[in-house]
Design goal:
GO biological process, one term: carbohydrate derivative metabolic process
Shape: globular
Radius of gyration: 30 Å
Pfam families: Glyco_hydro_20b, Glyco_hydro_84_hel, NAGidase
Helix content: 25-40%
Family: Belongs to the glycosyl hydrolase 84 family.
Largest sheet: 8 strands, parallel, barrel
Protein name: O-GlcNAcase
GO molecular function, one term: hexosaminidase activity
Structural class: alpha/beta
CATH topology of the largest domain: TIM Barrel
CATH architecture of the largest domain: Alpha-Beta Barrel
CATH superfamily of the largest domain: Glycosidases
Length: 738
């Protein structure tokens, strides 16, 4: 073969190989317009920057941190509309806030923003594309549909740590989220001590947070919550003004006032409107660099709206003030007809406070499934769209990733694809194991808010169908093996350590659930072939794993605001397992008398219950105060539903019941009050008896043998060990079974 011809063939073949390696990239958020070309260069290419002195500082610094910008062959031209460096491309830049034009070709990269934030986002898109080993030529014209896209730290529970927030701002910048509303209910200087300035150390931390947010082009919105005890007078108006001024000195340039979850004097719409107008006049307009105010109303969802409250805000409050809204209910997905209703009420575009994936009302669950249900046609009807997360910041990023994608370009949002991409983004080295975990942490179970999520445990459901179709237990056994192996992989991984620290109790719960599932199948097999000894061994393995799973806790450290008892796969796997075990035990008892002593004698199965007296709900009235009695309240608490939910567990050592309130994991002691000492099974377990459909609850062990009574709407310990008239007056009703 001619040497020149052979060399040409080799070059062409090499080029073809390189082109085949270069791939298009699934970008998130999905851009408005993308046109891919052929191979441009390797991601190991060095670059040189042109226009960096005038372009957005944070965008340029991000480039310098992430790519080699020393004397490279490929030129990066960067700047904003009006800069000399990108003047030639001005007509290609979308004329929209935060818009950008990105062009990648073999010899140069152009990143031209309509404004500084647009340039920053153009850099972020370039960095996503640069992750491929071989980078393709591309032209991207992009801008956000929704003006504000972000996160509200507004849940009840243990607030995010300082490091959580710092890391979160990097995540938000990378995913083009531009708003963080700081409103943790348990920051005393946000709520209980709202009149007081932050102490010096807290102010320093706040300043650091603001700087980190702004570096990522995230607007840090500081929220104050004065409604609990505000006095509608000049003094308190000045108090709020002074507090905002003090926070302004920390670098904050956006402010919000919360009036949610309050009662009494603070709920008056005309007073709230007047206060916001005062702040707008005396604070916002006197600072040229402060964003328009935001407020969360008392009637923040349609289900709670009544009277003229919303109309009063809409007509009396300055139209620049953004009004937050959660939808038809407290926890709801947002659709177009929802927006049409609320926007007409408040005479402006509502600012969406999406209560998802928040779990402060179902704390035993993680919500790791797809984020779906919001209208794809509401982009032009909102002034902002923010997500209220779980108290688990890293775990919430599964949903945050999709919220960012949705709010940027809702018309092109694909919930399933966005969820899949989030798994790789967050856990790239253990994506499949993480997928199995997330698939089994989707639904939140029955709650007072009514939201449910579809799609949990899809592999189990398919295997169960195969089993009921007569194909035996092979498919189910494979599913439980996969769950167990996936849990063990995650427990050993060094990938995403912050994420693993948060989800570790739930990962262990999945491992134990898998062990229980495998034991149930062994019980079923043993019953089928007539081996009672094997059945008992399998049952004991099931009971051991079940006991260990019951003891799992998350965030049970001293001073924890909420303590979770992690559960997984509760929608399909857990009900199947409980039903199977009960059925198998019944079948076993009909055939054998070997080791019947191992089976529990249990009046009340382990689970969550309401404790009721004459229709009223036993409630933890204040989860922060020890030594107080549980109270009976006539109505369901929809703000903190766990305060009326109780977990009953049969203690294996005493054969008595442990009764724990789900709000903060607090137990009731032998005096009928919330204990301040560490839980002790010999003191803090109860005997429960049933008579005529009602229960009596009685102390046991070292606590004596006194019954619970009710006086003045509170629990107390009766004076004698004999049941008083009416001792059998408690109803114990399964949560979700009403």
């Amino acid at each position: 073969m001619n040497k020149k011809f052979a060399s040409l063939v080799l070059v062409l073949f090499s080029g073809a190989t390189l082109c085949s390696v270069a791939q298009t990239v699934d970008l998130s958020p999905v851009p408005q317009s993308v046109e891919w070309g052929s191979r441009a260069f390797s991601n190991q290419t060095a670059f040189r920057i042109k226009g960096g002195f005038n372009a957005d500082y944070d965008a340029v610094e991000l480039l310098k941190r992430k790519v080699n910008t020393k004397n490279g062959e490929v030129k990066i031209i960067i700047g904003e509309r009006g800069d000399k460096s990108v003047k030639a491309y001005a007509d290609r830049i979308p004329d929209r806030a935060e818009g950008y034009y990105l062009s990648i070709s073999p010899r140069q990269v152009i990143i031209a923003g309509n404004d500084g934030r647009g340039t920053f986002y153009g850099v972020q898109t370039f960095l996503q594309i640069l992750r491929q080993p071989e980078v393709m030529s591309v032209v991207v014209k992009d801008y956000p549909t929704m003006p504000d896209r972000g996160i509200i730290e507004g849940f009840y529970g243990n607030p995010f740590s300082h490091k959580n927030r710092l890391d979160l701002f990097d995540f938000m910048g990378a995913n083009k989220m531009n708003v963080f509303v700081y409103g943790p209910k348990d920051d005393p200087y946000h709520r209980d001590k709202w009149r007081e300035p932050y102490p010096a150390d807290e102010a320093a931390r706040m300043t650091e947070l603001v700087k980190a947010a702004h570096k990522n082009h995230v607007q840090f919105v500081w929220a104050v919550h004065p409604g609990v005890d505000i006095r509608w007078n000049k003094a308190d108006s000045i108090n709020i003004l002074r507090k905002c001024e003090s926070v302004y000195q920390m670098g904050v340039r956006a402010f919000c006032v919360f009036f949610d979850d309050i009662g009494g004097e603070g709920t008056k719409a005309e007073k709230q409107a007047a206060l916001l107008n005062y702040l707008n006049k005396e604070f916002v307009k006197k600072h040229k660099d402060v964003a328009p105010l935001m407020m969360c109303p008392t009637q923040y969802n349609k289900g709670w709206s009544h009277g003229s409250y919303l109309n009063t805000l809409g007509t009396q409050m300055d139209p620049s003030v953004r009004i937050m809204w959660t939808g038809n209910t407290v926890v709801d997905m947002i659709e177009r007809n929802d927006m049409e209703w609320i926007n007409a009420q408040i005479n402006r575009k509502a600012y969406i406070w999406l209560n998802y994936p928040v779990t402060d009302y179902c704390i035993d669950h993680l919500l790791m499934g797809k984020t779906y249900g919001n209208g794809l046609d509401i982009g032009d009807m909102v002034s902002g769209f923010c997500s209220n997360p779980m108290e688990y910041c890293e775990a919430s990023k599964v949903s945050f990733y999709s919220i960012a994608d949705y709010a940027w370009n809702p018309v092109k949002y694909d919930a399933a694809k966005s969820w899949e991409m989030s798994l790789n983004y967050l856990m790239p080295n253990e994506e499949e194991a993480f997928r199995v975990f997330c698939e089994n942490n989707v639904d939140l179970g029955p709650t007072g808010h009514g939201l449910r999520r579809e799609g949990e445990s899809p592999r189990f459901r398919s295997a169960l169908k195969a089993s009921t179709d007569g194909l035996g237990n092979k498919a189910l056994r494979e599913v439980f093996n996969e769950m167990r192996v996936s849990a063990e992989v995650l427990q050993k991984t060094t990938d995403a350590p912050e994420m693993m620290e948060e989800i570790a109790p739930w990962v262990e719960a999945m491992r134990l659930t898998a062990l229980r599932g495998e034991a149930v199948l062994k019980m079923d097999d043993a019953l089928g072939v007539g081996t009672p000894e094997v059945f008992i061994d399998a049952y004991l393995a099931y009971a051991d794993a079940n006991g260990k799973q019951r003891e799992l806790r998350s965030r049970d450290f001293p001073g924890s605001i909420k303590v979770a008892s992690p559960v997984v796969a509760t929608n399909y796997v857990e009900p199947w397992m409980r039903t199977m075990v009960a059925s198998l035990i019944d079948q076993y008892k009909e055939k054998y008398d070997y080791r019947l002593d191992v089976f529990p004698k249990q009046l009340i199965p382990q689970g969550k219950y309401f404790i009721k007296v004459d229709g009223a709900y036993l409630t933890d009235p204040d989860s922060k105060q020890g030594g107080i009695a549980a109270e009976l309240r006539a109505d369901r608490d929809t703000i903190n539903p766990q305060s009326q939910e109780w977990t009953f567990t049969l203690d294996p050592n005493t054969n008595r019941y442990k009764i724990v309130n789900n709000q903060a994991g607090r137990y009731i002691n032998e005096l009928g009050k919330f204990g301040t000492n560490p839980y002790n099974e010999m003191w803090n377990t109860y005997e429960i008896t049933l008579q005529d459909g009602k229960y009596a609850i009685r102390n046991g062990g070292n606590a004596g043998n006194r019954f619970w009574g009710v006086k003045d709407g509170k629990i107390y310990q009766v004076s004698t060990p004999q049941p008083e008239a009416g001792a059998f007056r408690f109803e114990i009703v399964p949560v979700g079974g009403m």
